[in-house]
Design brief:
Elements (H helix, E strand, L loop, with lengths): L3 H7 L3 H7 L4 H12 L3 H10 L3 H17 L3 H14 L11 H14 L1
Helix pairs in contact: 4-5, 5-6, 6-7
Length: about 110
């Protein structure tokens, strides 16, 4: 079961995330659930598969904000790098293994 302790062990900065949620642990954990279910993960994957850097940037940028606010650092760091690689680009962009890293970390967090 996902808890503050399991998120902390995952690498999340739970102190920062909790502070943004008025130190309300149940509220923070509910927002983490919402963040991990964000449709922008699928939008990002689909846009990259289609070679649409602009749509991929929009999805990555949205995730950067929501995941960043939740302080889910293991997801946030590759999302930030992906966002910067996509910024101002059009057409296909070499994103290396960043999408795989983002999705793998998301799955780890969901499994907690």
């Amino acid at each position: 079961m996902r808890s503050i302790e399991t998120l902390r062990a995952f690498g999340a900065n739970t102190n920062e995330g909790l502070a943004r949620c008025f130190n309300d642990e149940s509220f923070y954990l509910r927002l983490v659930d919402v963040g991990l279910a964000d449709l922008n993960f699928d939008r990002l994957k689909d846009a990259l598969a289609a070679g649409n850097a602009e749509a991929a940037f929009e999805a990555a940028h949205a995730l950067k904000g929501s995941i960043g606010n939740l302080a889910l650092t293991p997801i946030y760091e590759p999302v930030c790098e992906l966002t910067e690689r996509l910024r101002g680009k059009s057409g296909p962009v070499d994103t290396g293994d960043l999408l795989d890293r983002v999705l793998a970390q998301r799955e780890k967090a969901r499994a907690l």
